[in-house]
Amino acid sequence: MFNIIFYEIRTTLRQAHSWLTPLLFFVMVITLFPLAIGPNESLLEKIAPGILWVAALLAILLSIGNLFRHDADEGYLDVMLLSPYPLTWLVLCKVMSHWLTHCLPLILISPILGFLLHLPAHEQYALFVSLLLGTPVLTLLGAIGAALVVGIRGHGLLLPILIMPLYIPVLIVGTATTQQSMAGCFAILGALLLFSLAFAPFLTGIALRIGVNQ
Amino acid sequence: MTSMSHLFAMGGYGFYVWPAYCITLFVFGINFFLFVREKKHVKKILQST
Amino acid sequence: MWNWLKHHFLSPKTFYANTTPLLPWMTLAFALCFGYGLIDGLFIAPADYQQGDGFRIIYVHVPSALTAMAIYLTMAIAALITLVWRVKIAAICMSCSARIGAWFTFLALVTGSIWGKPMWGTWWIWDARLTSVLILFFLYLGFIALESVIVDQHNRDRATAVIAIVGVINLPIIHYSVLWWNTLHQGPTISQFAKPAIAPAMLHPLIAMIAAFMLFYGLILLLRMRNQILLRERKSQWVQEVFV
Asked: How many domains does chain B have?
């Protein structure tokens, strides 16, 4: 299993653009907001958790479509489906490596961006943890959509449209956790993570079997 | 019974009540119209096979 | 027994034959319920104590919202049947219901907004119910979008079935998370948008209208399903014999 993860990470890191672009997108979207709304510190402070979370959500949304792209192009998908290892497990490995390369940089850089948006210090910690717990959920849920559209050429924004309703509860809980920092909120995020860990790879496997026929 | 203008005014809320009902009838009508259009389309395809 | 169920009773041909006698009765039932509900609701039911005659919008808003949710539930059940048992008419039911459901959700949103303006002073509010209906609308549209992209019939049925099932699981989660989010931001005040209890004289037209809307859905669903059956089975013998 670790072999697969290391292989995936090495492949992704080799192409700098695949993991660098979501990061740059994240940073740029966040810089758009003060430019659009004005540098009013008290206003930015209030909406900073929302901006950071929405930007992270968008960055993941736009990069998750490539989860199975490489495999589909190289014909590895059929290999995956026929392999002796359970498909759920393989999907989990792929999602994990995708999270490590695409989402972890976002999480690590978020405190700096929070500082830029005048995020209060006590919310910084909550934001970091909420992203840490929430971005895996987004990646897991996004994998379902990515598997469904894997065979469709030029699906454009169809994938974001399909996945967005799934992301809404995660967004609500994530921003609430950042703003409230109550133990209960973290627990709900943790529960979401466990729930999606349990079900999303299985659903992704089903979707892959359907999607690969196209 | 109440007069026509009284009915039309709907106790002052006429501006809201009547458009709501009209939109409802419109949606019902569109659904039926879409069905009829689809039926014509199917007929055309069946004739041509 | 199972073979008979799947390959004979639930076959498109039998479905088509069985639904033909149903249509005139459904149309009659719909016309009666709708006519009664319309007249009773608009003219005969007494005006509300608080809301005056404006409350009459309830007779189109509540039925459309209820029907929109019922349609999604029907879609999800049909989706499950499509995925697990691969029954063709379940796939057709799912596909046709999506379009009708989208229209009803649109109607619910518009009539709700029109009702909101005179009653609560605003065209829109981000509370749990309204937000959930808006997301329901997006779920319908997403389903239709996915359907339009996939070319192969069999794959289209299965992929859209997955989306429908994922959506039906998601909808209560969204509703409760928005509800929770609302209480966080508004504080523990009693919702000012709670519906008051309804008097019997006002209830009868409401029930009639709900029945009318559901009958309309059933009617249009059967009509469009029959169209789709003819389209999908156009190469089969029974279609060729009867229609060509």
From this structure: 1
